[in-house]
Each structure stands twice: as structure tokens, then as C-alpha cells.
Known about the structure:
Elements: E1 5-10, H1 12-36, E2 47-53, H2 57-65, E3 72-73, E4 76-79, E5 92-93, E6 105-113, H3 117-127, E7 133-141, E8 154-158, E9 164-165, E10 181-184, H4 186-190
Helix pairs in contact: 1-2
Amino acid sequence: xxxxxxxxxxxxxxxxxxxxxxxxxxxxDLERDLDKDGHTPLDEGRVTLIPIMTGAMIFxxxxxxxxxxxxxxxxxxxxxxxxxxxxxxxxxxxxxxPKNLKGKHVLVIDDILDSGQTMALxxxxxxxxxxxxxRTAVLLDKKARREVDINADYVGFxxxxxxxxxxxxxxxxYYRNHPEIAVLNADALTNAK
Length: 193
């Protein structure tokens, strides 16, 4: 189905197991936060998840199915890898940032933390709204590419310095539907349409 895949780094079974583990960690932390506030996890409007589109959509969808907490979703979009680029060109908002986050427990969800520019930008904009707490979850952490001093609170997998696709991550708009985290062969990267 995907002859351009050179190597699988993380299998779909590994992803499913780790997503369940992350959901349990996140829920435990949210319950502690809400308890400190004098609220229960079912208090409406206290938990907001903000996936960074489009890469985080699959990770977020699987993650929230394992989170038995009443929550709302707010979406944002950040561009940093235009077209067939395999290196970040700098992060900038491509959509509105969710509003009314003051006093909320916010979790930002992204597919990959590499340069750190996207996460730094989103965190800065959310912190301006004075949330009760702000945490970040990423499926993949590629520390070798970090340009900004930032780390995620929840990490699915640390990966080597490879350009990866699948499970929401793309190359030139393609391969998001590949069910695993994979590396493309060199021909696919040079012959993109």
C-alpha cells in the first residue's frame, strides 16, 4: 500500500499501547489539578484540549477516547513545514487561537516536538489567557532538532533525527493515513509531486 516506506520506527501496536498509557497519566494529573481547585473531573468547562492541526488529529482522537473526563476541544493550526519541506521554516499561526481559556486546565496536543518553535508559540499565546494549568503532550520527541529550550510534559516516543510520516504526520500533504510512524525512502523525498 505504501511502497515509499523505507522503515517503520513505531508500530501501530506500540502506538496504541502508549496512547492508553499517556491518557492514564494525563487523567491522573488532571484529577489532581481539579481536586486542588475544589472541582471534580466532571465539572463542565474546566478541561480544554487543544490539538495542533492537522498533524495531531489522529493522536488526539485516539487519546481522548481513552480519557473518561468531561472536556472540550479547541483547535488551532500552526504552519512550519510548508509543502515538501523536511525542515522547519519557522512557526506561525494559520488559524485563530481558542479563546476563554482563563482558569481552565489546558492540554496542548501535537504530533511531534522537534525544533520547539510551534510549541513555544502556542504556549506563549495560551499563557496570555491565564489558564489554571497548561501542559503539553506530543506523540514524538525529536530532541536532535531542538532550537528552543522546551520539553513536553507527556511524550509518546523519542525518535532519532529522521524525517517521519504516518499517524497524522505528512510529507507534502501525504502519508497521514499510514498507521505507523515510518521513514520514507530517499526517492519519495526527492520525487514528491
